[in-house]
Amino acid sequence: xxxxxxxxxxxxxxxxHFPEPHALFFVLFLTMYVTTLxxxxxxxxxxxxxxxxxxxxxxxxxHLSFLDMCYTSVTLPHVLKxxxxxxxxxxxxxxxxxxxxxxxxxxxxxxxxxxxxYDRYVAICHPLTYTLxxxxxLCAQLVGASWxxxxxxxxxxxxxxxxVPFCASHNLDHVFCDVPQLLKLSCVDTFLNQIxxxxxxxLLGASPFFCILVSYVHIAAAVLRIRTSQGRRxxxxxxxxxxxxxxxxxxxxxxxxxxxxxxxxxxxxxxxxVLYNVVTPMLNPIxxxxxxxxxxxALKRAxxxxxxxxxxxx
Length: 314
Fold this sequence. Notes:
By secondary structure, this protein is mostly helical. The chain has one domain (9-313): Rhodopsin 7-helix transmembrane proteins (Rhopdopsin 7-helix transmembrane proteins, Up-down Bundle), CATH 1.20.1070.10. The protein is built from eleven helices and three strands; from the N terminus they run E-H-H-E-H-H-H-E-H-H-H-H-H-H. It has helices at residues 23-49, 56-84, 92-125, 130-133, 136-162, 179-183, 191-223, 229-257, 266-290, 293-302, 305-313, and strands spanning 9-12, 89-91, 171-172. The protein has a three-stranded mixed β-sheet with strand order 2-1-3. Helix 1 (23-49) packs antiparallel against helix 2 (56-84) and helix 5 (136-162) packs antiparallel against helix 7 (191-223). It starts with 8 loop residues before the first strand and ends with a helix.
């Protein structure tokens, strides 16, 4: 406890594990960030312009696109700044704000992806009752519950982390503020924090992921009953791409939040964080919408000059 000190700022060391120059990382992350904003923004704009996308599936996808834009924007602008700056720091208050919104948005997305898998399960396995089951009220309740759980979870972790006393070294071996890396700097035993983090990771990470896998097993069984081989190939291609991105998101999240702190090199934390915080938000619009023939046609309609103007004036 003798080395305990008041924290004013943290210094990010995450990119020190990678060789200079960092200009290449800056261009790469900037490109991915712009692509994420453009792709997800395109989906939101198209869904707003075209009334045919006011369905449960696209209702959830709109929220997913909004989330991806939000939680990427929580971390990437500061990462981009630090890649070009000599002083790679963040204030203690700024770190807690970044932590709160990051944990909140990631938690909401974990639950929302499970909701989307359930929606596809009902649509494919119970098509006759889909409209009755996935009504507007239920969709709003599922999304509202996802947001409420994510925000409350973030309040818990941010409050517990803010009360942890930190040692004289404020060097954060990461590229943005996150719970596991902050707990490493504590001067005291963080057993309660670690147990809470493990419990929440299982509840908001492993449980939704298991539900998604179960949903897709039932979906795959339904797909096998499709008579045409072309239909089966198309359905399996779509399911495989969805599962690939979902698995990438959940596994990297759970790796980051639920593993022994000294069991691997620190740069693996950075790589895992980049995968779920930068790569998956960029891939989501491509996987869920932009490969979709229906969405491609809607984009052509929505952004055809005369048609687009008439839609805005309606």
